[in-house]
From TrEMBL:
Low complexity: compositionally biased ranges: 71-80
Region (Disordered): 70-99
Designated name of the protein: YbaB/EbfC family nucleoid-associated protein
InterPro entries xref list: YbaB-like_sf, YbaB/EbfC
GO molecular function, one term: DNA binding
One Pfam family, short name: YbaB_DNA_bd
Ranges annotated as biased composition (Basic and acidic residues): 81-99
């Protein structure tokens, strides 16, 4: 199973693995024209959002396979939930992963 999260903002598209490891990064010409500091902020925002999505998907997959491990154990794996960003991931979670 290949679990990832994707986010798009202002010409920046990222795909990350659970924990936030960057898998792909795409920048449009418009994104590049925004300048270094703004581009960096946009990339970091997109990575954070995509990581929350990937983490939520991984957390749900683990809970489905291993039962409810509780927040502490999953957080120690780097799969804690950021509520504001995890809500977006909930909308993309396949029904077959729902408990």
């Amino acid at each position: 199973m290949n679990i990832t999260g994707t986010a798009r903002h202002a010409g920046v598209t990222v795909e990350v693995a659970p924990g936030g490891a960057l898998r792909t990064l795409e920048l449009t010409a418009d994104a590049l024209r925004t300048g270094g500091p703004r581009l960096a902020d946009t990339i970091l925002h997109a990575v954070r959002e995509a990581a929350a999505e990937a983490n939520e998907r991984a957390r749900r997959a683990l809970e489905t396979e291993l039962g409810d491990l509780g927040g502490t154990e999953l957080s120690s794996l780097g799969l804690g939930s950021e509520k504001d960003l995890a809500d977006r991931a909930e909308d993309t979670t396949p029904d077959t992963w729902r408990v």
